[in-house]
Amino acid sequence: FFFKQKTAYEIFTSDWSSDVCSSDLKLDREARLTPAALETLAIVAYQIEWNKIHTLLQNVNLSDLHPDEPCETQAFHQLAASLGISVEDLERLQTIWGNEFLLYLQTMQARRCEFGIRSLSGSLSEYWRATGSWWENIEKACPEVLERPVYFVSSNTHSIANLISGYAISAKDQIISLLAQNGNSSLMTEWEEIQKRETPSNQQNFLFYALKKVQQTAEGKFMNQAQAEMEAKHGITRVPSLHSFDVEAQVIDLAKLNVPLLDPRLGGVSELSQTLKKSNALIINVDYPLGFGAYHILTALAENIADILGIYIMGKAATLNGVRGDVMIPSVVQDEHSENTYLFKNVFQATDVTPFLTFGTVLDNQKAVTALGTFLQNPRLTNVMYRDGYTDIEMEAGPYLSAIYEMYRPTRHPVNEIVNLYGVPFDIGILHYASDTPMSKGKNLGAGALSYEGMDSTYATSIAILRRILYKEQKRARL
Predict the structure, then answer these.
(1) pTM of the entire structure?
(2) Are 172 and 312 in contact (CB under 8 A)?
């Protein structure tokens, strides 16, 4: 009866969390939840949900359910009723499990789930050691990072490189030919509409998306090596993670960029050529980490690099007042890790992103919450956030801001305080693009990927970051 009436979230939060206080968004936890504890919570929740289904299926005859039959059958509706869920939710589960839908149900009906968890090297010192190993790998691949000024970017492994390498644009004919060869009719139709100006989609963004698609095919696999060679030739060094964090890094030498190959949205060729010739700066772009790993990574950079010119953070977030594909620009971040509220001057405004965004809207002056994990967000908590004016839920801004505090103050970041970062002597820029809308059922990445239109906000924010870096370099060149 207990498992039938309670969700996994309610079972666990009833043990360690008191009621949410709407005045300051904080959960009064008797014990801090570490990342390892959150992972354990998710695993145990999986076990509880499995065992709930096991209990509910004991009086269900699954032999009446045939995987080849449509979802409108009486047996399918009876199964949804037995599990206490809607037919729509059961259809979504069938989509996820595919041909193994019935097999999984039979397995869950046959036995209970009992996990055992064993923690290996879970101490904080091991985490520091892993961070040190990650940084040493970058330093070994690009020793010049120790002596050159650096712009730090936390984004992804494709957008920055695509915008500055020029590979996708130069290989346009090959990409389109491979799309046609593989019979991708929907993308070919989109390309034809772009050519005829029948759709507002951007040609460069389409090529970036199509490049990734053709590289995943047997015929287009050779383009992975061709792209890597072109990037290396034009100052982009990729440093894969070997033994610790699964966080790839890219070290970009601005002076080696081939300006005519840059995305035209980044600015005029002649002016950029003169600027970048004089530049001694590097961009270190990392595949953004989630959670407190962001703090450790930025701290490692700060300990080893003397001159950091700017810190720019781009990532996915859930929006409580927008739609998927919108861009949010926060100036306040409530961090659930440190329990601090950070106030800072975000160098980005709506005007920096709007000219390059086709399908979404830019929402500036937002208030963000850095959550401990997406698993812990429920309707009650998101409603409290929304009532207090917090509309942006993500996972790394808070830890990054804690590391930034320690970069210009002589003490460790505080706990449970309002922290003013307006005196920081370098750029702080945070841009979030909406991938989830938790106030709307099913409107999240679990129900569908961002796909082609979703890349619109990814590249709009990436362009804003690169334009800001190039603007800073132009100012430095005049000094």
Answers:
(1) 0.79
(2) no
